[in-house]
Each structure stands twice: as C-alpha cells, then as structure tokens.
Amino acid sequence: MESLPHCETLLLEKQGPILIITINRPEVRNAMSLQMVAELSTVFTQIESDLHIRAVVIRGAGGHFCAGGDIKDMAGARGQRAGAGEADPFYRLNRAFGQMIQQVNESSKVVIAVTEGAVMGGGFGLACVSDVAIAGPTAKFGMPETTLGIIPAQIAPFVVERIGLTQARRLALLGLRIDADEACKLGIVHQAASSEQDLEEMLGHAIERVRQCAPVATAETKALLHRVGHEAMSGLLDDAAEKFAEAIKGSEGTEGTMAFMQKRPPAWAGDSE
Question: How many CA atoms lie within 13 A of 216 on its CB side?
Fold first, then answer.
C-alpha cells in the first residue's frame, strides 16, 4: 500500500479499503482553487494503482460540499499575461479543472459523493461524475455560471451525461438552484437523506455494498459502462465477452462462484486492508 500524499486543501483518511477525501477550505465554502484541483488530481493518480483502495468518498468540511471555482484564482488569472507560445491563463485555469474532473470520472475506484450545503459550479460537476451520490437535507445544487457572465465550460458535458440534455439546458440556461429532493428526481444524486443520521446510514450502506463486490470486477464493469455510446455495439460486446471469459476463469471469478456454492462470503467481503 502506497502512502498518501500531503495535501493542504484536502483531509485524507483511510478506513480499510475506503479513502475518505474531505475538501477542507470551510472559510470559503470549500471553493475549488487551482491548488485543490492539483491535489485532487495527485491523489487520484496515486491511488489508481493502489489495489488496497477500492472506493473514494468525497465530502466537504464545515457543512458545504464545494461552492464552485475560487474567485481569487480567477482574479489572479486576470492579472496574468500569456507569454509567447503560452496558453491564455483563463484557459489553463479552466482546462486544469476539466482534466481533473475527467480523471475522477474515469477512475477505476468507486467514487461516492456526500453532498451538503453548497454544491455549485465545479462542486456540482464533481457530484455529477460520482458513481454514487447522496445528498444531505441542506444540499443546494446549481450551475450559476451564466448569472456571473461566464459559462459552465468543463462541467456541462458531464451534466448532460448525468441527467440528459433536456434537464441540463434548463438548469444551465436559467442558472437555477435546486434542493436535494429535486436533484434526486433529476438523477443528479441517487438518494436524498432526511437528516444527518440518515445521511451517514446511507453512506455506511454504500460502503458495505462496495465491500461485497469484487474489486477487479467492479473496476472492469465501470470501464465497460463508460464505453457505452462511444463505440459500435457489436465490437463492444465482442470485447465484453472476452473480458467476461477472463473474469470467470480468474481468481475473483473462481472465488466468487466457490463462495456462492459453499454459502459463505467471498474473500474480498472481509477485506480490511
């Protein structure tokens, strides 16, 4: 198991096979700075090859998930000038966030977002690339970019993938803010908790389900799901059949079928590493 990187904007805690990332800038409602983007990217790069980590929980400190981009970084970019052959500072700022959110989206780990308070802009995008999203009773979701005279450039494609073009148009073009119940109806989150206790119980249940699922099979399944709609179906199914054959003959497939026949939990269900 690799040691976790030192971070200034994130708190990292490992609980068995689960890594909990707490966005820790409560004084600015966990607004996403360039440093935070870089630290999130570093963490996800490092854990990608760590087989001991099977899921990542992302949540925010101080009652908020993430209020969007850091205005100070935008102001700093405004004061910079691109040198000869360099990209525009605003382009670099925006694109760095897009690369990070794509990385989280494509991570082989199960990503669980626990959303409370402000879930805006970049925070909204982060919720939309999670595999499991749970909202607390205080959560407010929105794409306020157009009300600020800017555009949701990097998150819009992921929002469309999450909830479809029709609903994404309404949210983005009106700059709406919605509560947890509406976010659940739209499919932004999967569950809306009625209390803090309810939220923690939902998270605990999700983590327990992660433990029941074989880690390599889970990662392969996530990768397969991401390919749907981007490749010709016949070729995709051919490749999926090959991966199925590898899985069922592999160590996890052997253990899973044996455990089923013997009416016992599979080895990975008790994984505490």
Answer: 12
Give the separation between CA 203 and CA 200, rounded to whole angstroms: 5
CA angle, 76 then 79 then 85, to 5°: 105
What's the number of CA atoms in the CB half-sphere (13 Å) around residue 23?
33
Cα 166-168-173 angle, rounded to 5 deg = 105
SS3 60: strand
Q: Which two tokens stand for residue 105?
A: 């989206």
Cβ pair 208, 14 in contact under 8 A: no
What structural domains and CATH numbers belong to the chain? 10-210 (3.90.226.10), 214-270 (1.10.12.10)
pLDDT reading at 83 higher than 70: no
For residues 215 and 251, the answer to whether their CB atoms sit within 8 Å is no
Q: Residue 11 pairs with which residues in a beta bridge?
A: 22
Rounded CA separation 40/24 (Å)? 12
Whether residue 1 is predicted with pLDDT greater than 60 in this model: the reply is no
CB 192 within 8 A of CB 181: yes
Handedness of CA 124, 107, 70, 137 (dihedral sign): positive
Please tell me what DSSP assigns to residue 3: P
User: How does pLDDT run across 88-117, given as a tens digit for each residue?
Assistant: 888 988 999 999 999 999 999 999 999 999
Strand order of the β-sheet with 191-192 is: 10-15, 18-23, 55-60, 110-115, 132-135, 191-192
Residues in Cβ contact with 200 at an 8 Å cutoff, skipping those fewer than 6 apart:
none
